[in-house]
Specification:
Helices cover 77% and strands 0% of the residues. The protein has 14 helices and no strands. It is mainly alpha-helical.
């Protein structure tokens, strides 16, 4: 029982960044991921000047922290914190300038990729929630007359943070040319969920959201504790609304990031597409057995077969004519 409770607490502490040197670790591995992205992408041929590659790595990982705070009249995190530039420098050296390229090889292995992916996601989770809170505190006393809390600002601000790197490196056209990028989709979902669950204490959306999630969690908890009674004490530990929302958003972002690794489903994996495509696939599978669809399928098969026979006959006639000549 104690082991299960310890594992549960360890996971929740990690997902909320509640451990020693959390800021340093998540910043360092965010910088490692950015350096690897440049090394494997724009600098794949290793022809970029070192300072060009360094600054490209810095902005790949920290463009949001560099520019987004200025929109709220706050100092850039790259200037207000000594940690970020230090970890960028260390990560850049590790990825690009270790003897025999040993650092790049270790970081590029599956365990290395998994570690820096998880801590980089923890960096993004913390940024999303922090920037949501910053915007809410700035605008909470001046909501619109249509809803008791501000909506747009606290949701858009963390989305801008997450996408500043893409806009900075590719421009608006380059970042959006294939539709809505995953960082925007993720930001809309996670920032909206966290904002209404934590900050909307009186509005109809927040009240309904907390009530429905509480009912779903109680149902899930009853099923799990029935199967594993030792978890009842772990679930009994009280979490504030903010802690619960933090854990939920963090878990979603971590699981999605792992599933998007090349070793699993790849970067094209989208949980929202998977959720909606499942029912569509089931519907198509079921309706394929209906008489109307079946007859149409047979009709199409017959038509395709007839077309194939006509083409075959035509080819034979041409071949026969050539032989006669």
């Amino acid at each position: 029982m104690e082991n299960i409770l310890m594992i549960f607490n360890t996971i929740t502490n990690y997902l909320t960044g509640n451990f020693d040197y959390a800021a340093e670790l998540r910043g360092f591995f965010m910088a490692v991921q950015a350096s690897m992205a440049v090394r494997n992408g724009r600098n794949k041929q290793n022809k970029m000047a070192w300072f060009h590659a360094f600054m490209a790595s810095v902005f790949a990982g920290f463009a949001g922290g560099t520019f987004a705070p200025m929109l709220m009249g706050r100092p850039s995190l790259m200037l207000s914190s000594d940690i970020n530039f230090c970890v960028c420098t260390l990560a850049f050296i590790l990825v690009n300038y270790t003897p025999f390229d040993i650092g790049y090889k270790i970081v590029g292995s599956f365990p290395g990729v998994l570690v820096y992916t998880l801590f980089a996601q923890l960096f993004r989770v913390n940024g999303l929630i922090s920037f949501n809170s910053i915007a809410f505190e700035a605008f909470k006393n001046s909501p619109s007359k249509y809803y008791p809390i501000p909506i747009v600002g606290p949701i858009i601000f963390p989305i801008i943070l997450a996408n500043m790197g893409g806009f900075f490196a590719k421009g608006i056209d380059g970042h959006l040319k294939n539709g809505m990028p995953w960082p925007i989709q993720n930001g809309i979902f996670c920032a909206t969920l966290y904002h209404f669950y934590v900050n909307d204490q009186t509005g109809v959306i927040g009240v309904a959201l907390r009530e429905n999630i509480a009912n779903a969690c109680d149902l899930l908890k009853n099923h799990i504790t029935t199967l594993v009674p030792d978890l009842e004490k772990a679930f009994g530990s009280s979490l504030s609304e903010q802690q619960f929302a933090f854990i939920a958003v963090s878990a979603f972002m971590h699981v999605t990031a792992v599933l998007q690794l090349p070793s699993f489903f790849g970067s094209s994996f989208n949980p929202f597409v998977s959720i909606f495509s499942g029912p569509i696939f089931i519907f198509n599978a079921l309706t394929s057995f209906l008489p109307s669809n079946t007859s149409k399928k047979i009709e199409n098969d017959v038509q395709a077969k007839s077309t194939q026979d006509v083409n075959t006959t035509s080819k034979r006639k041409k071949s026969k004519g050539k032989k006669q000549h």
